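Example 3.2
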Amino acid sequence: MSMTSKGSWNRVGLGPKTRPRPRPRIRPRRLLGVALSVFLFLWLVLPYDNTVRLAFRFNWKELKASWVSRPSERWVYAHPEFPIDVGSDVVVIVKTGYGTRERVPAWLDALSRGNEFRDIIVIADSEGHIDFADQFHDKGLHVHDAVGHSLQLHLRAYKDHPRVKKYHKLAEALSKGDEALALDHCRSFGWELDAMKFISGLEMTYQKYPDKSWYLLVDDDTFVVQPSLKPLLEHLDPTQPHYLGNAVGDFRIRFAHGGSAVILSQAAMRTLIQNQRALASIYVDSLDETWGDRLLAKALLHLGIYLDETYSHLFNGEPPLLSKIRADRLCSPVLSFHKLPSPAAMREVGENFRNVSKPLMWNDLWETHGYTPPWRQTDGAFHDDWDHVGALDESTLTIDKIKTAETCKKNCDRRSARVWPGCGIPRRVCATSALG
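Structure, written as tokens:
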């Protein structure tokens, strides 16, 4: 049977016989280009605090950290790139409250003999005065009412807000001289007023000291190691927007833990305070925010200033004897200690670190307190009932029914714990670092 010719195929009305077109092939390079273009477009148009943008940024940093080891900290002893005079270039904002006002004199007493902090602003939820004298201060320190500042200048329209009413309750008790009632109010809702001090306290400080290179915000139970602070600041350019501290929070908002100390550069402060439109909405948010340090991060995020976590391990949210000394920070400076709630505890830490004249490393903490570092201890029994782990949390592992310190040490060695073990023999408990 002969093949049907092209002409006969056309004659039966079926038209010319054609081959089907091959499907266009999308090259991987073109796909990659489209994906990058979409990503760059979204990166440019999405707000700085957009969840998608924050999630990508957080996961990228986590991935990068798993690939790259921690940068060298040779800068600690290197020639300063941006030399500063702490007395003239740094202002300290001490955050307190009427209920904890007795901590501030202890904070001032704890300053070392080589103290360089000259300009200190004390902010609280009421006005007051602190009798104090040193080489820089002979008339004491005024306590500024940061909450009243925010209500008077930014929140006049919110006089019926529950938090504003609570502030007026405290103010009324103080005006009547009823200290017992005032202290009761502080215990009841002082933490709510605390969230309103951060932004207003920074604004008050910037209004008085607009040309400082660095702004250091601390709680009244936070001790700052000045010899560790100076080399960090001299390593960074204050004309760039730096926001530093102990990183906490999830990917949606990473913020510097207020108790561990917060540092802002001159550029960051100028960007924050001079943007009155953004500042106005943040003041309103302070009426309902739980944590003022998170509110500060939120304000900075709106302006494209993210927390720099490169130096988070220098900031410490624990007291010295409960500080966790991990392998990733053993040879790094420690800049702060927190949770020193009593005046006696603050003064004791000040006395222990009074003669420190160079950057204090994490591995110096044992000897600073008169203890033998674990790596120099040769007798296993010497570890009985010693604690080298600190407060037990998600970063620690507790093993029950341990009879001897030697058994605890073997468990620690087997798990390659990054901190030295503690063993409470009377309770038969061994606590080690869960980070292997």
